[in-house]
Structures are given as C-alpha cells and as structure tokens.
Amino acid sequence: MNKILKRTLIPSLMAASLAGVTLVPAKPAAADDQVLRDAGIGAVTNVVTGAVRGNGSVLGNAVKGGVTGAAVNGANGLRNTRNRHHRNIGQDVGVGAGASAVTGVVTGDSRDTLGNAVDGAAVGAAIHLLTNGK
Fold this sequence. Notes:
The chain has helices at about 1-25, 35-55, 60-75, 90-105, 115-130. By secondary structure, it is mainly alpha-helical. The radius of gyration is 21 Å and the shape is extended. About 35% of the residues are buried.
C-alpha cells in the first residue's frame, strides 16, 4: 500500500507544485516604463566619467553605464508605486556602484574595479538627481 501511494501521490504533487510555480508568478518584473531613460542617463554619465578618468573606450563605457542605469531603475522598481517617485540616494548610488563593478568584470574591464564602482556611483547619483520626484 505504501508503494502505491508513493507512486500515485508524489508525481501528482510534483506536477501540481510545478504548475503553481510556473503559472502564478510571485511578482512581476521590477523595471518600470522609464528603464530606457535611466539606461540613457547611465550611458551618457559613464561616457563622461570614463573620459574624465581616461578609462576604457566610449562604447565600453556606454555599455557599462546603460546596464548600470537599468539596474538602478530595476532596484527602484522594487518599491511600491507611491514610493517610486521618491528615490533613495543611498540606494541609487549603492546599486550603481555594485552594478558597474560587476558589469566591468563581466565585460572584461576588471583591471580597475574601484574605478568602475566610482563610475557607477556617479551614474546612480545622476539618475537620482535628474529623476527624483518625477
């Protein structure tokens, strides 16, 4: 009797739990409709900071800045709708620094991780200053 229960009950429980996990997502995607705006701000800011520091190519800095801007937007999208318009400067700068450092490692620009983090922090601060309250 025990083997019969295991053979019939376990597969149906697994199928039900799999269907519940795949068909009913816990939360929608975090990025909002302004992700392209933030990615653009990030790309421009990182190109400027890269040029000032003499680090990397324009295209590489634009890619890192765009990814960093999208990450800052995504982190801000985790908040409820009311608080999305009142950004947190510490969160924006921190997420920007971390995302830029990680993106630098992924894209092969891991020679200057601290510099990448500084560039990302500048991106987070620029996004905060230009979009807070909007």
